[in-house]
Amino acid sequence: MKIEPGYLICEKCEGYYRLQPDESPEDFSDICECGGKLKYLGSYDNGVEEYKGEFWRALASGVFFGFILFFGLKMIVASLVGGATTAYMVGGKYRDGAWNGFITGAIIMLLVMFIAFIHGIYVKKLVLDFSAVFSYGFGLVILFTIGISLAAGAVAAFGGVIGIKIRKIREKYQ
User: Fold this and answer.
1) N or C end of the chain: smaller count of CB under 10 Å?
2) For residue 161, what pLDDT band results from cuts at 50, 70 and 90?
3) Which helix (H) or strand (E) holds 80?
4) What span, in angstroms and rounded, lies between the C-alpha atoms of 109 and 87?
5) Please, what sign has the CA dihedral across residues 104, 90, 76, 126?
6) Does pLDDT of 101 surpass 70?
7) Where in the chain does DSSP place strands (E)?
8) pTM over the 0.70 mark
């Protein structure tokens, strides 16, 4: 069985060079032509494909978190504004504002989840197979819904404190 001498792979441009049997990694600079750092991998099967797999995992993670951040920022702003508005209108102490904001944020998120569910059924013609839903973790869906509602409530509680602060400032100068 012939042993491959390995590969040099650039971490920046992802270019690679297959070492010849008479070459070693020490024969080359640690810097690629593009300016990136070269990494030595022993074999193509365990090296290049694994290294390229890291790129796709990183890309998928970036897209996922970008998607969450994009929609998450909208929900954060909605929760903050909703909590601040409710607390401002109701008034009271900071603790009351936080509690009113929390309730507002949780309700906002539950409504968003409910609307998404209804949208899936009527607009997207989602067919519900409850046996599949229960077998694939309906409990996880419920836990996710509760978790996201609590997170939105926590953000809105902060908005509630802001709403009370705005009301107190306004009352001070009236």
Assistant:
1) N
2) very high
3) helix 49-90
4) 17
5) positive
6) yes
7) 7-10, 16-18, 38-41
8) no
